Amino acid sequence: MAVTKTFPHSVLDPLRALGLFDVGENYTQELLDKVSKDEGTPALRWHFLGQLQSNKISKLCRSAAVLETVSRKSELEVIARQERQPEIYVQIDFTGQENRGGAPLGELDVLLRRAELLKVTVSGLMTVAPPDPLRAREAFSELRRAASTWNLPELSMGMSDDLEIALEEGSTAIRVGRALLGSRPQA
Length: 187
Fold this sequence. Notes:
By secondary structure, the chain is α/β, with parallel strands linked by helices.
């Protein structure tokens, strides 16, 4: 998937020409703006990759095909009340850093059971791996095992710096920005 965070809307047509129709955004307003500008062109499948804010979930549910960063029961509860529910991936954090999104792996069972009770369909797991390649491989491997345990078909893991490891560990969706589009434009 192409991550177009901070890139202009104009990058979408060249991506389509390459056959890339899955696009990820980290910021709600940027996703909404690009979706709005893109009406009438061949459909893209929009993934939201940023930290979810409860007051913006309803807007994201109307525009995104996939919410990849669900990590709290409260987010599942807001999603359950929406008329349109996008595909859901639960984000798992393997770094333990407060500034990283995601739930600890130990909370996955509770989140998935809550989703079942709310009738919210979770189709996959997502993680942003630790920067160390050895720890990244361990995280990807653990995520793959967890997805297998719960029969979840989608694994969103890997970015520009660790995509080879992610592929080796079974990723079904790699989030590529810099390796595809170059350095992000400076604001």
